[in-house]
Amino acid sequence: MKTSKGAIFLPGDSLPIPPGYKVIGSFSEVRGKHVICTTITLVSIKGTTIKLVPLKGVYIPNVGDKVIGIAKHISVDHCIFDINSPYPAILQINGFPTKSQSRIDMREQFTVGTVIYGEVKGKFGPYISLTLQGPELGILSKGFVLEISPVKIPRFVGKRGSMINMIKDMLKCNILVGMNGRVWIESDEYEIIKIIREVIDKIERESHVSGLTDRVKNLIAARLKELGVSK
């Protein structure tokens, strides 16, 4: 098949599935012996595996996802968060990380605009249910939040964390990544935030091109050199 090195498919495009082949990826539908792309997708074939990598798409929550949420409405026993998804999220008292939950007034914990790092537990009525119980989870009281297309998050993180670990090591900052397309950065230097914004823009433009990690490394090195920082 001609897609062995990767080809761009548009929404509605159909790709035949040869006998014995399997399809991996998201934002697509398998109909009989064809796979239908539902967003702009990079399709590649290795052996008998058809891999679909969406180049665009909204965030659809999955249980266990870590997300960065922004408080939009607070009441006594719950808080509603924007998680950059068609579905709003809810944090109830039983998801708050404390043993004295019966005495919690959520209005004393959050204000509109409070940023959290939470985990998707499941659904609660029309909402996505969140918890703050777990390592690294909680209120993000400082730092900056940048946005990236949710489908680009795997490229921002890299295989086994290779990309994000390189970024953190070179820029000496703390980074938390939400699967919902939000990135939280803690750094005392605004220039570092600007570099990461440039890195995100590069990943969004070039995520489908091989050698991305090296190009990002060279970009960061060049920007640090401009700032007079040696690496």
Short précis:
The chain is α+β, with helices and mostly antiparallel strands. The chain is 22% helix and 34% strand. It has three domains: 7-54, RNA polymerase II/Efflux pump adaptor protein, barrel-sandwich hybrid domain (OB fold (Dihydrolipoamide Acetyltransferase, E2P), Beta Barrel); 66-139, Nucleic acid-binding proteins (OB fold (Dihydrolipoamide Acetyltransferase, E2P)); 144-226, K Homology domain, type 1 (Ribosomal Protein S8, Chain: A, domain 1), CATH 3.30.1370.10.
What would your notes on this structure say?
This protein is flat. By secondary structure, it is of the alpha+beta class. The N and C termini lie far apart (44 Å). 22% of the residues lie in helices and 34% in strands. It folds into 3 domains: 7-54, Beta Barrel (OB fold (Dihydrolipoamide Acetyltransferase, E2P)); 66-139, OB fold (Dihydrolipoamide Acetyltransferase, E2P) (Beta Barrel), CATH 2.40.50; 144-226, 2-Layer Sandwich (Ribosomal Protein S8, Chain: A, domain 1). Helix 3 (162-171) packs parallel to helix 5 and helix 4 (190-206) packs antiparallel against helix 5.
Characteristic terms for this protein:
34% strand; Ribosomal Protein S8, Chain: A, domain 1; single chain; 22% helix; OB fold (Dihydrolipoamide Acetyltransferase, E2P); 231 residues; four-stranded mixed β-sheet; alpha+beta; five-stranded mixed β-barrel; 5 helices
